[in-house]
Amino acid sequence: MEEGVDISVEFGGLKLANPVFTASGTCGYADELADFMDMNALGGFITKSITRKPRKGNPTPRIVETDSGMLNAIGLANIGLDKFIEEKLPALEGISGAVFVNVAGETINDYLSVVERLAGEKAIAGFELNISCPNVAKGGMSFGTEPAQVTEITSAVKKAAGEKVLMVKLSPCVTDISVIARAAVEAGADALSLVNTFTAMVIDIEKREAVLANRTGGLSGPAIKPIAIYLVNKVYNEVAKKNGTPILGLGGIRTASDAVEFVIAGASAVGVGTANFIEPGCAVKIVEGIRKYCIRNKIENMKELIGSLK
Amino acid sequence: MTDNRSVLGKGVFESVVCSNKQIGERFYRLGLEFSGAGAEAFGGVKAGQFAQLDLSGTALPTAEAIPEDLVDAARRGIILRRPFSFCDVTRKDNKTRVEILYCVLGPATLRMTTLSAGDRVSVIGPLGRGFTVPEGKGTALLVAGGMGAGPLLHLAKVLTAEVPRMDVIAFAGAQSKTELPFERPLDEISQNLGFSLGEFADHGVRSHVATDDGTAGHEGLVTDCFSKWLGQQNLAAKDTIIYACGPEAMLAQVAEIAKNKGIDCEVSMERRMACGIGLCQSCAVECRVNGSNRTIYILCCEDGPVFDGQEVVFGS
After folding, report:
1. B275, B283, B289, B295: which to substitute to probe chain A, counting the most A Cβ within 10 Å?
2. What is the DSSP letter of B49?
């Protein structure tokens, strides 16, 4: 580490070596990205969504590129809890950063059965509660758009999570994201991650059909970054700052400059998502870029930067 | 059976463009050269494997050079890499040269046409599972539809080099003569000897051509031409293997023909993919589990793009 620059951050009671995570659903279960970068160089890592039972996912096409972004409708395809524990968890123990398991389900009991089984695992630092997936018929985003449901699921999972950090991932597809953020924080969320993807659609004009088999998908990538910055800043000012709740900012981060922008808006940490698809290993470059930014701007401690928007 | 994955690990490598030649109205062959670790990694490429090219920073052609049907698409910026397999791979003096056969279809391939010698292109690869090179088979039948000819040209080279006693015969189809992605039609004498396409003849491989409109070779679908030819032969099923690459409907028919004859069959599938390395989960292919009716989705990028033709649920 460069002398005089501390880019470590506090995050929901965890001390992270740096503020950079790879975002859920864009970095598999860590083994896939390990060919391209040192996973230990990250502040944290978030697994793709785990559900109680394996999920096949949606039919194809599951993605389509858009101007400065892409739509996906994977449908939470994953190997399920049992296989995750058996095949993937042992390798996660070797990761020095904070490992968060993203949890999804169709019912509150689905979420609870995953969290209860994993709450005692020492490889895991915390859970990211996915109540904002736009691509499944049941569960997913439906839990994340009604404040009363957010309260119910967050408080139930908080009890099951025990000592682990509980981060709630918010959908931007709501009337007022601060209302949802407040419900999560008041129900016991230790951290918030925002934003998940925006529900969107692309139409093939020759066929007059939606390009995605699921018809709609979640928009991610640079196209959503300015909206995500705005929403992080809004939640920081209206909810997170006064409650001391850290925010993991995500939405279109490709560069260290993007990451710093999120931190200035109020994020304590950032998640790199779609950019992993294009440049696997870019998250490590972002860590280095943040360090250089701090040196250049004579910022001795990352904390000075968080929410420093004038 | 030999391992159908590259021996050395995948990675992000910089390549240098050495050629980019137009070989038809919409067809090009791009040559990329790797040195150092990239040369090692791509020197071990198996036929049917692929790579992801970053074309996001590549310039558009001039307005006059943009085909009418791509004028709107050309205005769209691209961010994702694009997957391509190889039609040829050669190693020389610690360098590896790969050739990519491509067709101008959208904003990325349109940009690709402006690449010229000396330009640099970031490439992730080698990726996926390629075709199996069988030991102990006497005949390999290659069935290509349109752009599917690319990886089968590479396979023809590999098979004739690695299994010298094997008889390799290719079938190439397209809608019409101008849609055949080949540079060199052969003269009448060669054609009478069964060598219709220069690119396959280079490897000593005989070839049959089919066009939907009959402007070249057999009139009709390549699968009909192939099926008819197969019916006239007396090949031992166990001694034969079929490889196919092309539109999914064609692959489904080839797999069906192979099943009826009891011949092993490998098909190279195509899916939209963002990453190519198993992260995005978008390139799912529905496959049967152990010949049962139960199906699962597996990834075209990691478990494919080459699959056992009897495993795939086509059109899913």
Report:
1. B275
2. -
Contact A28 B279 (CB under 8 A): yes
This complex has an ipTM of 0.93
pTM of this structure: 0.94
Query: Does the annotation mark A133 as catalytic?
Result: yes
Collect the ranges in chain A with pLDDT lower than 70.
Answer: 1-3, 135, 137-140
- Cα distances (Å, whole numbers) of residue A278 to A60, A221, B30, B279: 20, 10, 21, 11
End-to-end CA distance of chain B: 29
Structural domains in chain B, CATH included, are: 11-127 (2.40.30.10), 139-268 (3.40.50.80), 270-316 (2.10.240)
**Pairing, β A63-66 against β A44-46:** unpaired
Q: Do B11 and A57 touch (CB under 8 A)?
A: no
Burial A205-236, CB ≥16 within 10 A → b, else e: eeeeebbbebeebbbbbbbbbeebbebbbbbb
> Which pLDDT score, from 0 to 100, does residue B292 have?
85
Nearest to A257, CA basis, from A274, A237, A278, A272: A272
Domain A9-57+72-201+220-304 has CATH 3.40.50.2020: no
CA A69, A73, A76, A79 dihedral sign is negative
